[in-house]
Specification:
The chain has about 200 residues and is an alpha+beta fold. It has a single domain, classed as Roll (Nuclear Transport Factor 2, Chain: A), CATH 3.10.450.710. Helix content is about 60%, strand content about 20%. The chain has a five-stranded antiparallel β-sheet. Strand 1 and strand 2 form a beta hairpin. Helix 3 packs across helix 5. The protein is globular and about 45 Å long.
Length: about 200
Amino acid sequence: MKFFKIFFLSVILFFNTSLFADEASDWLRKEIDIILNAYLNENISNEERFLMIEQTINENFAGTGIAKFIAGNAWTKASKETKKNYIKSFKRHLALNIASMMQGYSDQKYELSSSKIDKNKVILVNMEIFSNTGSVVVTWRLKEAKNRLFVIDLLVADISLVVTKRSEFNSMLKNVDYNLEEFNSILDNQNEESLQKIINQ
């Protein structure tokens, strides 16, 4: 009898987990389509398109948590105002990075091929993007917080965007002795240059 109880509980848990993973895929598809539709809309300017993408990313990425992780030890030494400015600059940097990656988009098809929940309750959704030369798999890492989902990382060919950014930022922070306030100025200048490239492409 005990075996059957455990078996049925396992089955119920499996279906609930699968259902939640499927719901996460549906949510992700909706948010991805908002970004892709912005690229297909020829009636808006490059700046308007970027601002739409930035808003979507700010709403759906765990920007503050990612920013703190990437800043590393520099975060603990910074003032409250510096941290606030850094988070704002980092969120724009993230949006600009994703917008830059999307510049070559021309109505390629994609498919959310599978989803699962790992031992840390992170939802992994595989997205296969098709082109004339083949396909590439992007894995979205999602986490539930405050009764909704947030993107916490992107893996392209098993390479983490967050880990890559932490390494990149650490090299830059090292050059300013991990002074986050000084780093903010560098990041703001980079953001402005990237924005102008996107607007004027």
